[in-house]
Structure prediction request, 151 residues.
Amino acid sequence: MSSDKKIVVAMLIEVLGKPAEHLIVTLEDILSKIASEKGISIISKNINQPVEMASQKGFFTDFAEIELEVPDVATLILLMFKYMPSHIEILSPSDLSIKSFDLNKILNDLTLRLHKYDEVTRIVQMEKTILERKLREMLKKEKTEQEEKKD
Prediction:
């Protein structure tokens, strides 16, 4: 960024799981990790109480609201990918200016991360296909063995 003015951001961090108490501990841990990031200052934070999901009994959702200062757009984007907030709002400044060099770095880092995510997704898809094939083979073999026992 061309100015020395920090960026003030509001974020929502959501978690899902069980038991309910674990969600609060998890959010506290996430907020602690965010606070320890270089150049980050926490202005305020609030962890809400977990709520049981209507569609999945026994599972809970919870979220934390956090307001923080970041030194630049690159740090904000890094936080976004590292902690995956469900919502981000830049509170100030109302206008941002960024040098093309800094934007190039951000875009290249973003592209690298997306390629890594794509690679992981492809590996998981291939593993899923292999597991499905092996399961079908096992079920077919089991069915054949059961039919042979009947004869």
Summary: The CA atoms of residues 28 and 47 lie 8 Å apart.
